[in-house]
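no rush on this but wanted to send it before i forget. theres a chain ive been looking at and ive put its sequence and its fold in token form underneath. please have a look and point out which stretches look like helix strand or loop to you. thanks a lot i owe you, the record is right below:
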Amino acid sequence: MCPVCITTAAVAAAGATSAGGLTALLVKFFVPTKEPAMEYPRIVSRDEWLVARRQHLTKEKELTRLRDELSAERRNLPRVKVDQRYVFDGSDGKEQLADLFGGKSQLIVYHFMFDPAWTEGCKSCSYIADHFDGVRIHLAARDVAFAVVSRAPLATIQSFQQRMGWLFKWVSSHGSTFNYDFHTTTDEAVAPVEYNYRDKAALEQLGQTYHVKGEQPGASVFLRDGDNVYHTYSTYGRGLDLLIGAYNYLDLVPRGRDEEGLPSTMAWLRHHDRYNDDAQTPEKSDACCA
């Protein structure tokens, strides 16, 4: 479950037993009474700024080296053969996992939170998905295919995708165990609960009960060698930050992501066609991030 979903659950748990009560609680949680004053960085001379900037550059370079080392380790992780036959519904009909490679040897799958009962996709996943179309042609040039998978029926997915103006490949895993097997839908009635490599007991101990049941975000990587498909990597939670270019831009500016004091880190998010709405008023939606 995404961070904004957590707020919805918390609000419900706070005692909203009627539509009016829920509205009042949502306003209480989402509408700040006063914009907090920001403490801006101190003002210094150009020479003092250069000293501070060079000190910070040393740390940035160290982080870059560590990230390169970590990426190399990730690429060298062992692989697991995928023996399960997964069938997806796509715009071209039924497709298997191997078909999603589209002639490439490597495949990245984004697990988009879209429950079969919802009429629109998760806002947090939509935020990430706004970055997909621009990179697809560059990934293809490096022998990498990209696809998005959700549990919602294909017709529901296509309607929402058209509304959002996205063009990336998006298929439905509705009726298959793909989401459960890769731990992006959790339901102990179907499969043992696991999210971000923690079982149900560990998640509950950490207070992350929102990961125990429902749709969860993630990304998985696969390798094709001949007729064989292998799973090489999956990441969840904050591991998806690497896919969010907008966050990387926000991390450059003085106010950063500016999410302190919000009910959850992504409470400010809207689907990109809804930012003209009052940004402080909760949207009415049956999706995960309502």
